[in-house]
Amino acid sequence: MTIVGWTVYAIAIGLLLAPAAWLLEHGLARIGLPTRWVWLGSMALCVALPVAAAVTGPSGPDDVVSISGPIGEALTLVPSAGAPAAEPGGAVDALIAAVARWRAGLDRIVAAVAAALVSARPSIGRWVGVAWGSASLLLAAFLLGSARTLSRRARGWPRQAHLGREVRLAPQLGPATLGLVHPMIVLPAWAASLPAHRLELILTHEEEHARARDPLLLAVGLACVVAFPWNPVVWWQHRRLRDAVEVDCDRRVLRRGAAPPSYGDLLLWMGSRRHLTWLPATTMTGSRSLLERRLTAMRTTKLRAALPRTIGATVVAGGLVVVACTTEPPVAGNGPQGPDPAASVQERNPGVADVWIEPDGRVYINDELHPMEDVSEVIGRLEAASGADLVVSLQADPEAPYGVMHDFQQQLRASGVPRVVFTTRTAPLRTPPGELSEVLEGLALVLPEAGMQVPVSGRNLLHLVVRPSGVVEVRRGVSTEVQRVRAADIEALWRQEVASNPRLIAAVKVHRDAGYTHMVEVLDALHAAEAQRISIQVLAEQEVALR
Prior knowledge:
Elements: H1 3-30, H2 36-56, E1 72-74, H3 91-120, H4 124-154, E2 159-162, E3 165-170, E4 176-178, E5 184-188, H5 196-211, H6 214-227, H7 232-255, H8 260-270, E6 282-283, H9 288-297, H10 303-326, E7 352-357, E8 363-365, E9 368-370, H11 375-386, E10 391-396, H12 402-415, E11 419-422, H13 436-439, E12 443-446, E13 461-466, E14 472-476, E15 483-485, H14 490-500, E16 505-510, H15 516-528, E17 533-538, H16 541-545
Helix pairs in contact: 1-2, 1-3, 1-7, 1-10, 2-6, 2-7, 3-10, 4-6, 5-7, 6-7, 7-9, 11-12
């Protein structure tokens, strides 16, 4: 993963989390709940998710599937008795499928933007790194220097007691709350002459900031900005965090008994005063837009009327957060454009045909585009030219539907080349093609001849139906009972089942619209469980139609 791709990924994550936080803030504000934690959490995720991706590397559907091993048998089984599994339905499945589509689309966009930037200026990564480090250092130095200067000035401000609170009296600065560990209230000199009721409201407001440790919260937000100074989304989120801190504080002041008309009048009067925006210090003053938000937030809303909108906003925000958390950073050298056309066919191992399949059905054989109907003829020519048994290293975009893969397998069977290795990434050839387990990474299978069927007892089948959402439906033998599991659960499930029936066969049926990655996840789990007999078939139309 290049630094350019990682930067684009970080900004894309922010563009998902920012609207999620905005929706959640508006939903919580309608029912009077604090919103500052929403923005702090969003900023933390904007930093944590890219950092985690850089430390651990990409994971999930776009990863290399490392399931090397001996050639197995792919059987075409006679359908056994018993009703086929039903297609999962309902709102939950629809939501899962929608989130998966959003995530996959964003993955492709991030990869395409990163690839375009790198191709336009190959040295851009080095300049991005230099600019990032310089900006972070300069911003950190500015903030630390400003904080130190302000702290030194504050030590010279006199301490005074006003309405039972100890404050520091500054010439002009304030009202504000300064200090991360021991917050102190700062009042400007002119505040000492205010009427008692106004001064009480000001002191109550700043006292609430100190009790909630709001300066420390703002400092954490600033740390996120220093970490990612090039990300405009993080800057915008920090501004929203400052605003949310003030709105939440207003609510706490009102709960302590302040009269809304008097408090609103004070906010209007304070609106034109100077305020701090670049230090972790809270102030009563702010921009005109913030003043409008604070006055609007003081209105009371009926819970029954606001609750449906809050729930709706929370659901949408949750979906955006899921997409953000599951979006994969682009892998270096693996853009969505397919295989590298610059690779030399002469440098390839003649005993291996490299195949890449796009989601729209385009087929690249040794980096040359061929229509699906010509695959059988092209593979046949390569088999004849190799002078040995040809092995097809099959790769596909993770979102390529299995229906396209099935059509390709039919072409392979017609060509008479049965040996195929399923994988999701190119693996370097390190040894002669005769040592297949050391040459290719993937699940090696021998496709049966066209029309070949092997009758088996229905009791010896473990049906695994892979749906478009990635859900796997498990049906045992002739039983009609269906269990829905994740691909990650298949390994443990297979070991448990085969322990009681050593003759068990994994009958994998894949929906035509299911992504290639879902099929590979199931095969990976079966291989990890040391399954010896596997059948891979496309889900029949009549089985798809049954619900």
